[in-house]
Write a structure and sequence with these properties.
The chain has 339 residues and is an alpha/beta fold. Helix content is 28%, strand content 25%. Strands 1-11-10-9-8-6-7-5-4-3-2 form an 11-stranded mixed sheet, sandwiched between helices. Helix 4 links the parallel strand 8 and strand 9. The radius of gyration is 19 Å and the shape is globular.
Length: 339
């Protein structure tokens, strides 16, 4: 079992209103030990038997694996860190990514970064969260930015889209397990944090309910809704995406099959969350409405979970004007919980 996370001393919901506008080198890792873990049993709910394989309860029951973290080509060397292409194994797939390792004497706490939606046809390794990759490494964190399956040099999962991209959650869990048991002296596998943005914020929510205790703390920037049906309506149905018709035909609409849609929503399982969560959201975000974060934070708070929602007056989805202050809060949050 992976339950080793720390609990936040304070629980409940805090609303903070921020006023304002918005190479060629190759290196191989030491031989890692294979990691295989099982999640907690799913929270009892009105589920069908057997569990639908496309559901959060199915991921909760799965024996997740993450291993074989390997450093490849050096992408950049700075005065503060070295950036590498990396691969790791996640539940039978090879996943690519980017990793920044700080200079100096480790071991350093490690963060997994989950990026937002970028069309896989144009995505390249490490694309997304570039500002965060740099700043966090400069402040003493090993940063592993996962590409996810079907992105960059990762293995292909042809069922990813019709399975509501739940595989991205498996890839984040696999990244954490690969970091934890890499055997690399630079990495402190007992201090792990998770940060996701936009779609990656939804991956954060899923990870916290599927794998409680795997991380020590998590941060979500401008996350999508914790209800996948709401995301589909907002982003895909309104654009006449043909995938929506396939999803409706396979699973039924929320009106036709409410059980399925409850079981793919992390809001259904907030009672499983053990890690403190910090959510950043701008009041002027017209991509991911702030009400989505308000609803998830309220659900976590009602369940007695440690959550803080910081609202940024006038800030949009991109978080440019208030990004420095939001990252100061993020680094303070991680420094308190990754001790």
């Amino acid at each position: 079992m992976w339950l080793r996370g720390t609990a936040c001393a304070a629980t409940g919901l805090t609303l903070v209103l921020a006023i304002g506008c918005t190479g060629e080198d190759n290196e191989s890792a030491p031989a890692p030990r294979k990691t295989s873990v099982s999640a907690q049993p799913p929270t009892p709910s009105p589920t069908r038997e057997p569990v639908n394989p496309v559901s959060l309860p199915a991921l909760m029951q799965e024996k997740h694996q993450g291993s074989d973290l390997r450093l490849g080509t050096v992408l950049a060397r700075t005065e503060a860190y070295t950036s590498y292409r990396v691969t790791y194994e996640s539940d039978g797939l090879t996943i690519s990514g980017l990793m920044n390792i700080p200079r100096g004497k480790g071991p350093f706490p490690a963060l997994v970064l989950a990026h937002g939606y970028i069309d896989p046809d144009v995505y390249t390794t490490g694309r997304g969260l570039a500002r965060e990759q740099d700043l966090l490494a400069r402040n003493g964190y090993v940063v592993l930015h996962t590409d996810y399956r079907n992105h960059a040099a990762s293995d292909d999962d042809p069922d990813s889209d019709i399975s509501l991209r739940l595989g991205y959650t498996e890839d984040v869990i696999g990244a954490a397990l690969a970091l934890r048991d890499s055997g690399r002296p630079e990495i402190d596998g007992d201090r792990l944090g998770l940060l996701g943005r936009s779609m990656g914020g939804g991956v954060v929510y899923n990870t916290l309910v599927v794998a409680p205790g795997l991380f020590d703390a998590a941060v979500a920037f401008a996350p999508v809704s914790s209800r996948p049906d709401e995301n589909i309506d907002h982003f895909q149905r309104s654009d006449d995406d043909p995938l929506v018709a396939e999803i409706d035909a396979k699973y039924g609409t929320p009106e036709e099959n409410p059980t399925f849609w409850r079981e793919v929503s992390p809001r259904t399982y907030v009672d499983r969350v053990t890690e403190p969560l910090l959510i950043h959201h701008g009041t002027a975000d017209d991509t991911c409405p702030i009400v989505w974060s308000e609803q998830m934070a309220a659900a976590l708070s009602a369940a007695g979970k440690p959550v803080e929602l910081r609202k940024y007056q006038g800030e949009g989805h991109t978080f440019y004007p208030r990004w420095p202050s939001s990252m100061d809060a993020t680094m303070d949050f991680f420094s308190r919980h990754l001790r």
